[in-house]
Design brief:
single chain, 280 residues, alpha/beta, Spore Coat Polysaccharide Biosynthesis Protein SpsA, Chain A, nine-stranded mixed sheet, 8 helices
Length: 280
């Protein structure tokens, strides 16, 4: 199983001031990237990081796209800077992708106490669909980079942490992957340890609006029944009738003209490079 490490890239998305706290996996055959937003001059890079990718602009989706562009291995695990990798689980998922030819393995995470962060329907690999993949977190996503690049898939940079619509970049990516004819599976392997609170666990008014926008983009003309089904399933979390109605009738979408993808180039940690500025 350890031989599979040579086929794996782990790509952390981080802000410059948080890079020093990253804990790369101990397995040195794994390629480790850190995709950084913010000034990189004087950056404190932890031991075990192979390359740093300065990422222009804002939004975690830009960092995910930079990871796709800069990975040198066949398989890529997206990671956040506060996640501790469970290497055995990730490599088991690499083996799953190799055996099945699937493009995506969606793993699991535990909290610092070792408890699963979500409830899962099965302890066997389960084919992903639009109706069972909405809860995906990016640090649970392992992709076959070759298939992703071949189909031109990228994260929609209008969504995700760091931009106004701060949820749903993972779900949109999976939806596009499935519509491109690629296969993905939820697998019963733990990929890492994550703090108990995340953006996906909030249910305020702005959070509900962001969720509605995501569903509108995923389901298009069929978004109304999708919003209604989501509201019914999560009615206790959403709250009172007024919030339920507001969510179910929210038809907001984002301007397609604003959809764009950033570009970034990896550098070795010791290489000097001027700070990167956002594009005009």
């Amino acid at each position: 199983m350890r031989a599979l490490a040579a086929e794996l890239t782990v790509a952390y998305s981080s802000l410059a001031e948080r890079v020093a706290d990253i804990r790369p996996p101990a397995e040195r055959r794994i390629e480790v990237l850190v995709c950084v937003q913010g000034p990189t001059a004087g950056l404190q890079v932890p031991e075990g990081v192979d390359r740093v990718v300065p990422v222009p602009g804002r939004g975690v989706a830009r960092s995910r796209n930079a990871a796709i562009e800069n990975s040198r291995r066949r398989y890529l695990l997206f990671c956040d800077d506060d996640v501790e990798i469970r290497t055995d689980g990730v490599l088991a998922a690499v083996d799953h992708l190799r055996r099945t030819g699937a493009a995506l393995a969606l793993g699991r995470a535990v909290d610092p106490e070792g408890r699963l962060r979500k409830r899962y329907r099965s302890d066997r690999p389960t084919r992903l669909t639009l109706t069972n993949s909405a809860k995906a977190a990016t640090y649970e996503m392992l992709v076959d980079v070759a298939q992703v690049r071949q189909t031109g898939l990228r994260f929609d940079e209008r969504f995700g942490a760091g931009v106004e619509t701060y949820l749903g970049d993972e779900y949109l990516f999976i939806a596009e992957l499935l519509r491109a004819g690629l296969r993905g599976y939820a697998v019963p392997y733990v990929f890492g340890v994550h703090p108990p609170t995340s953006s996906g666990s909030r249910w305020g008014g702005a959070d509900l609006h962001a969720r509605a926008v995501v569903l509108n983009h995923v389901f298009g003309p069929w978004a109304a029944p999708a919003r209604a089904a989501f509201a019914l399933r999560h009615r206790r979390s959403i709250g009172g009738r007024e919030q339920l109605v507001r969510f179910a009738t929210d038809r907001t979408t984002l301007d397609e003209a604003l959809r764009r993808r950033g570009h970034a180039r990896a550098v070795d940690p010791g290489e000097q490079r001027p700070p990167t500025q956002p594009p005009a």
